[in-house]
Structures are given as C-alpha cells and as structure tokens.
Design brief:
By secondary structure, the chain is mainly alpha-helical. The chain has a domain of 183 residues. Helix content is 83%, strand content 0%. The protein is built from eleven helices and no strands. The protein is globular, with a radius of gyration of 18 Å.
C-alpha cells in the first residue's frame, strides 16, 4: 500500500483533498455547487482539444476551465444557473466533437472522468503542489471578503465591495483548482470532494474557521479511506469517494437533526 507509485498517490491525493476542502467550503457557503459540478465535468473537453492540436492537455483544461469560470462569475447576478448550464452543455458538446476527431484520445476519457490517482507520475507532484499553493494563497486573500459577501451581500456592496469582481476571482480560483485536479483524480472525484465533506462540515458548526478546518479534514479523511479501500478491493477510487462523501453528509445531517430535537 506504500510502494513507490502508491506514495505518489498519497501525496497528490492529500494535496488535492486539502484544496478541495478549502475551496468547497466557500462553494457550499456561496451556493455555487452547480458551478463546481459544471467546470470540472466540462473542462475535460479542453484536454481533448489540446491533444487534437498537439498541445499538453493541462493547457486545454486550464483554458476551458478559466473561460467557463470567468463567464459564470460575471453572470452571478443575472440568472447564473442558466449561464452555468449553457457553459456545461457547450463544453460537453465541444468535447464530443474533439473526441470524434481524435481516436487516440479516447482511452484517456475514463481517466479524466474517474481519475488515475493510483497511477500518478512523480512529475505530476510538483505542478500539483505549486498550483495548489497559488489557489490557497488566493483563498486566504479573499477569505474575509467572501465571508462578508456571503453573510450580508447588500451590506458588503454598500461598503464598496464589488460582488461581481469577487465572484470572478473566486470562480477563477475554483477553475484553476479544477483544471489541476481533473487529470489526477478525475472530474467526478473532484466534485465529490468539493461538495460532500464541506456540506457536512457546515452542518457540524456555525463558526467559519472551525467549519473550514473540518471541511479540509473530512476531505482528506474521505480520500485516504477511499485510496486504501480501492487498493484492497481493486474497485475504482471514484466509487469510494462518491459513496463516502454522500455518507459523511447524511451522517452529519442526521446528527444535526438529532441534536436540534434533543435541545
């Protein structure tokens, strides 16, 4: 379980889970779960297009994710759910076209959707850590404005905080994180970690700092258990991550309801 290729999986998985937990806290707090689903699931089309023209897939992922993220962020106050859906549909349509033109890319589709965390190369560790640190620094810089805007958007706007600019900055951070994690852990795995554990953490406590810490801890714990279970059973990591993320949320929901009734 701790051989050389598994060591890479533990390192990269931990870094990705920490970033997903931190980003997911704000995703849940701001009600951006649909965008967190659309960006990683549609951005794989960028990797398909990049492979078609002979460019590294990561460049295509970043380009598609950033464009989609900025577009969704700019339309936050104007029916962003419609814009998010249209961005997802457009990227999936382009991905289907790119895949039909490039047969050599087809074997990589499963890896982009469900991840190849058990086969992470050593060369992937450094880019993952660098971009994760950049995203973490951006979240730290926007921490107080994001909380203020989520708690009292009208008051934040009256104080001079630009909600559209803030939303675009957050969506850009979410897009970069998604583009980074899709080729490593898959689009579906990224979404599971970004929504399930953070939503459970928000139910457990009302304190932002405690909820953020709990979100990151639950994401890491979920991924660690999933990697170990996948190694022992030979089932996909994505299956365990999705199942455990849902289970963590259900348990937190039940415990919250029980505490309220007891009080």
């Amino acid at each position: 379980m701790f051989s050389s290729f598994m060591t890479n999986a533990w390192i990269v998985g931990t870094v990705v889970a920490l970033l997903a937990g931190a980003t997911g806290f704000f995703v849940v707090l701001r009600g951006s779960s649909f965008a967190a689903h659309a960006i990683p699931n549609g951005a794989f089309a960028g990797a398909a297009g990049a492979t078609l023209v002979g460019v590294t897939p990561l460049a295509g992922l970043i380009a598609f994710a950033v464009v989609a993220g900025l577009g969704i962020g700019a339309s936050r106050r104007h029916r962003s759910d419609v814009t998010t859906a249209m961005a997802l549909v457009m990227m999936l349509a382009l991905g289907a076209a790119f895949l039909s033109l490039s047969a050599a890319y087809e074997p990589q589709v499963d890896a982009l959707l469900f991840g190849e965390i058990l086969g992470v190369a050593s060369s992937s560790i450094t880019p993952v850590i660098i971009i994760s640190l950049v995203c973490a620094a951006a979240l730290a810089y926007m921490y107080r404005p994001l909380l203020f805007n989520a708690a009292a958007p009208d008051l934040a706007a009256a104080r001079g905080l630009n909600p559209t600019l803030l939303e675009m900055g957050f969506m850009l951070t979410l897009a970069l994180g998604s583009a980074l994690t899709v080729p490593v852990v898959g689009a579906l795995l990224t979404f599971s970690l970004t929504v399930g554990p953070p939503a459970a953490a928000r139910l457990m406590t009302r304190r932002p700092g405690t909820a953020l810490t709990a979100s990151m801890s639950l994401s890491v714990a979920t991924l660690w258990v999933s990697i170990a279970a996948s190694y022992q059973t030979n089932l996909p990591v994505g299956f365990f991550v999705g199942s455990l993320s849902a289970l963590v949320y259900v348990v937190a929901r039940v415990l919250t309801q029980w505490r309220r009734r007891s009080a």
